[in-house]
Amino acid sequence: MSVANTVRTTDIYAACEQALLCADPPFKSQLCAELYAFWMNASDQERRAAMVDTGASEIRTLKSPGRPDAPELVDARQLAKRSLGSPQGRIALIHSLAHIEFNAINLAIDAVYRFRGMPAEYVEDWLRVASEEGEHFMLLHHRLKSLDTWYGQLPAHDGLWDMARGTDHDVLVRMALVPRILEARGLDVAPPMIDKLRHMNDEDTADILLRIYTDEITHVAVGNRWFRYVCAQRKLDGTAVFQDLLKEGANSAYLRSPFNREARLQAGFTEQELDVIKEMEREYKEWQRLKTASDG
Question: Which of 103, 140, 265, 272 could form a disulfide with 98 if both were Cys (CB 3.0 to 4.6 A apart)?
């Protein structure tokens, strides 16, 4: 069934629900591409009509989006660490990236499905992100097949969707933590990974990572844009809100230097926010050190 046909007869949220609950990764990627194409080809009137919440899809708290039976999801600490210098290590890296991109599709579609009443530009931004994340997944999917393996062969963890569950109550919190913390992490780790792959003459994988890295700068920028929009709507100091959220729970655990300052600035972070990120990382490391000493 085509998502575009569904949108024409119901609403954008019902179509997003269909894509979100789809358990087949390549088909989910296709649905997201169709959904974005529908949106870009629709008139302003059609877009406004599609954004009317008809009640065709109830906003549900999802323990998990649609996903295949494999990979097996385990605690991140159970995942084997493999050297990138071995064929098995490279397969593990590509598999891990495919899992990240599959989750990123769900996170982008969920941003539209869950947070209704946002401007049409918000819907367009996140439909584009979902479509591009689907393209990223398919590039990695085909790369795995070229190496005689597949997505699902290795175990993975559920940390990305854990963050989705923890931010499903407020668009401000979702925008603050998912694109600006989780996705921004990719801006830090991708360039050295690309260099290492090129050094090992794996140009095919390096080229895929470069494409993902380039797109992810714009995806983080989308998160920054809408985080600031909601802060402005609520008359909040965005930097202070961001710092407060990083102090909650284990949110700062995702902060790991060195940070790619140039890419983060390009993606819309301010110098003040980068200072906050570095300070919150330092505080979290100190908290960990004291906790380890106390437990010992």
Answer: 140
Cα-based distances in Å from 209 to 32, 46, 113: 21, 36, 28
Give residue 44's Cα distance to chain centre: 28
**Count of beta carbons in the 10 Å neighbourhood of residue 279:** 14
Q: Where are the alpha helices (DSSP H) in the chain?
A: 3-9, 12-21, 25-41, 44-50, 87-114, 120-146, 159-166, 171-177, 184-199, 203-233, 238-247, 261-266, 271-295
Instruction: State the CATH number of the domain containing residue 20.
Output: 1.20.1260
pLDDT in tens, 140-177: 999 999 999 999 999 999 888 888 999 999 999 999 99
* Domain membership flag for residue 200: yes
Indicate whether 270 belongs to any domain: yes
Is residue 129 in a domain? yes
Predicted confidence at residue 4, as pLDDT, reads 55
- Cβ neighbourhood burial of 295 (10 Å; 0-12, 13-18, 19+): exposed
